[in-house]
Amino acid sequence: MRNRFEEFVACAVEINRCIQRIKDQEMQRFGLRSRHTMCLYFLGCHPEGLSVGALADVSRCLGQLAEKGLARSEDSGGKRAYRTRHFLTPEGQALAARMNEAIAQALQFGGSGLSDEAREAYYAAAEQILKNLKA
After folding, report:
1. Three-state DSSP class for 86?
2. Beta strand 71-73 pairing with 85-88
3. pLDDT tens, residue by residue, 45-64
4. What are phi and psi of 69, to 5 degrees?
5. Are 52 and 76 in contact (CB under 8 A)?
């Protein structure tokens, strides 16, 4: 008999491990860590900049990205630091673009063999499971 709980958890854990391994490998090439991936990603999606508050889960990475010349912050002009917006430098934008290409390739490879309908069903099911678990 199949144990759905064990199968679901094992699959989710293994997918997370694969994603983490890809992040580690890609970021290591730039002297960064996997946790920098999401910071670069969100800053790349928001060229208008984001505050530390908006980047709550990734705020620790901003200083390290700035040290490597990949991110910068606007002049605070006396505002509180957590309201200061942060941006990618041109080097950071280039890295974010390379990272997004690697993500697209990983998703393409990971989803190979799936029809568009199967892919849509997977994402719909995953979103419904998440919604149910949050409730």
Report:
1. strand
2. antiparallel
3. 888 888 877 777 666 788 88
4. 75, 20
5. no
